Amino acid sequence: MNTPDAPLPSPLGFPPEARAFDAEAFAHARGHWEGSFALAHLPRLAAACVGLASNAPLHWQADGETRAAGDGVPRPALRLRLACRLPLECQRCLQPVEEAVDVDRHFIFASDEETAAQLDEECDDDVLAPLHGADLLTLMEDELLLALPPVPRHADCRTPVDAAGEPPPHPFAALATLKGNTNNATD
């Protein structure tokens, strides 16, 4: 089991240098990484899903670039694209619902936390520190967790039906009956 401080194990084929990459060098080289791996390699995301198949794929792409922050100064940046289908729990019927999740985000890197906080207020892109040693796999998992729908549900969700084919009673039906009895008792 991974703890927030423990590093995630790298998926097969994931670039080892992406686990603690130099954002400045990656941006200046206009680096490019891409691939696919099973979502089971992201334990916090797996915990948010129901029935997550270990082979459900995450397709990803990371590109180094230079972007201007709020102060107009070009800085090392990363464009991250993620695409997957996540099995979540429908909040209406409590059955699994598959949600497509697509992330396309830009991150600008700053040399320290103070600079990052200042630039983050002035910039539409997220500003991150540190400039060196960022873990792309953890960043990917964080972004997928943030992209989860707040209330997943089927587009055409119907109320569950019991074995006899009858819909379950309305949860406040008993209250309505009691309220009716109270009104009759005071007449």
Annotate the secondary structure layout:
Layout lengths: L20 E2 H6 L3 E7 L4 H6 L8 E12 L5 E16 L6 E14 L3 H10 L3 E3 L3 E3 L1 H12 L25 H14 L1
Parallel strand pairs: 5-6
Antiparallel strand pairs: 1-7, 2-3, 3-4, 4-5
* Total E-strand runs: 7
Strand content: 25-35%
Range of helix content? 25-40%
Task: Kindly provide the radius of gyration, computed on alpha-carbon positions and rounded to a whole number of angstroms.
Answer: 24 Å
Would you write up a description of this structure?
- The protein is an alpha+beta fold and 187 residues long.
- The chain has one domain.
- 26% of the residues lie in helices and 30% in strands.
- The chain is built from 5 helices and 7 strands; from the N terminus they run βαβαβββαββαα.
- The protein has helices at 23-28, 43-48, 113-122, 136-147, 173-186; strands at 21-22, 32-38, 57-68, 74-89, 96-109, 126-128, 132-134.
- A 5-stranded mixed sheet has the order 2-3-4-5-6.
- Strand 5, helix 3 (113-122) and strand 6 (126-128) form a beta-alpha-beta unit.
- The mean pLDDT is 82.
Brief overview:
Helix content is 26%, strand content 30%. It is α+β, with helices and mostly antiparallel strands and 187 residues long. It has one domain.
Overview features:
5-stranded mixed beta sheet; 187 residues; single chain; two-stranded antiparallel sheet; alpha+beta; 7 strands; 30% strand
